[in-house]
Amino acid sequence: DMLSQVVFGLAQATADWVLEDWIASAEAAIRKQVGDRRVICALSGGVDSTVAATLVSRAIGDQLQCVFVDHGLMRFRERERVMKLFEQLDLRVTAV
């Protein structure tokens, strides 16, 4: 309720967008900016970088190469779980 009051009351924002329209618009903008170049994306395994990589991958496909760095401080078998998730999302990821 508090967030709703701030966003829609105080800031007077409107909920007049559709997620699918935003995704299509974002993908088109990514394709335009990238053109025929290749892109590298560093993945942490967290939500933010995974969502960003998935969106970019949907936009440019094989032009994207993701890199996941195992820094040695992850939980037991976390690397395997994260890499399996990336595979399920059809992301091309190299783990180092």
Radius of gyration: 17 Å
* Unreliable segments of 5+ consecutive residues: none
Shape: flat
Q: Work out the helix count.
A: 4
- Strand order, biggest sheet? 1-2-3
Averaged pLDDT? 94
Would you report the number of β strands?
3
- The arrangement of helices and strands along the chain is HHEHEHE
- Based on helices, strands and strand pairing, what is the structural class? alpha/beta
Approximate helicity band: 40-55%
Name the beta content range.
5-15%
Largest sheet: 3 strands, parallel
Could you give the distance between the termini? 44 Å
Q: What's the short version?
A:
This protein is of the alpha/beta class. The protein has four helices and three strands; from the N terminus they run H-H-E-H-E-H-E. A three-stranded parallel β-sheet has the order 1-2-3, covered by helices on one side.
Question: Mind sketching the topology for me?
Answer:
Elements: H1 2-10, H2 19-34, E1 39-43, H3 47-60, E2 64-68, H4 78-88, E3 93-95
Parallel strand pairs: 1-2, 2-3
Helix pairs in contact: 2-3
